[in-house]
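quick one: guanine bound model?
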Amino acid sequence: MRIFRGRLFTPHSSPFGTDDVAASFTYHEDGFLAVDDDGRIASAGSWERRSAQSPEAEVTTFGAHALMTPGFVDTHLHAPQLEMIGSYGGHLLEWLNRYTFPTEAKFADAGHAGMIAQSLFDELLHNGTLTALIFSTIHYEATDIFFREAERRGFRAIIGKTMMDRNAPAALLEGAVESYEASRALLEKWNGRGLLRYAITPRFAPTSTPEQLRLAGKLKQEFPDAYVHTHISENRSEVGWVSELFPESSSYAGVYDHFGLLSDRTVLAHGVHLSDAELDLLSARGSRISHCPNSNLFLGSGLFPLGRTVEHHVQVGLGSDIGAGTTPSMFNAMADAYKVQQVQGVSLTPFHLWYLATLGGARTLSLDPAIGSLEKGKDADFLVLDLHATPLISLRSDRASSVEDLLAGLIFMGDDRVVERAFIGGREVSSRRASEAPAARMEAMS
Ligand code: GUN
Ligand code: ZN
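yep, here:
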């Protein structure tokens, strides 16, 4: 048993649709987290009130400037797009053709994929993202490399090989059957291995023939516990194109439903322009939406209707959507989610935002039995945030009038500098000090 002492903040239910937001979280200025030898949370609470833990337990004191909180969950990102962040100009469809497809074609080279995989998991961990739902490219080998690197890091991930068989450059297309078989082989290899899961990943309706979507649905039927990960209704031209390509379907969501791709293991990125009837359909199927505010602003896709989505009982999480999104930081995802609602006349509280980035994300990925909050029985996936990370953050944190105000300061000013340490299943996976340049480390030691 190990005990960690410091400030502790955790959501434990949704603050949406309740008047009693204060009942949705716990905060202790002097708190503790007890982690058992299996890496699970044995108990969490106020230091003063802790019952006698095993007397031989090792106590690590992080101190008054450290905040323990659940690891962030990124519900949508593209691993191969890390190197093209900030590719500007043009809306979605032009951006895909001009930048995205040429970048993804490079992943035929395993060496390139290996290099990007290293950077990706470095960045996610430094930013406090401990779980992610990830698009790879169409390449079997590159996808296998992303899985292998996640496994090597002890990272919790759901990854999938992109499926495309039309409307993209020839180098990124494969036959519907070939794509089904390669996806199936990766699924059988990785789904359920340690902390890893497989997502059947048709890119979006326009880049798949009906035959490919049918085979994706067949794969889902053969492996009901696998995830389905795709995009929906991000951009108005895209929505119009889908109705031309699938004239017999009544809606974009209807296309996926027709092929058996909507279930409670389905995560659809964006959903900016969904109709009420489509939200009803997603709700009936239990499907989830990844809201990616940074990306929606960057590509000019539109303003996500969060209130309407939640009213339809569709579970929502936050996504960075790298590389249309410009940073892996979930602090930024929270800040941009706030701003996207703010311009629509709704002010989300820090508790709503923090929930979306942690427990809400875990629920979106159906991983909430294991992660998303710091509660007894869950895996000890947690961050230690440094409230004194920079002089300005220190100034802001020290003057915070409440926990609400403290979290607000972190949401709008926080980034990877704030993430001091990160633990997955009780195992330390990243520490800021260890990742500093050797020269800085030597200086710190002397
Ligand atoms: N829709 C289909 N592919 C993509 C992609 O790579 N990024 C975004 N943001 N939307 C998409
Ligand atoms: Zn995306």
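The chain is about 40% helix and 25% strand.
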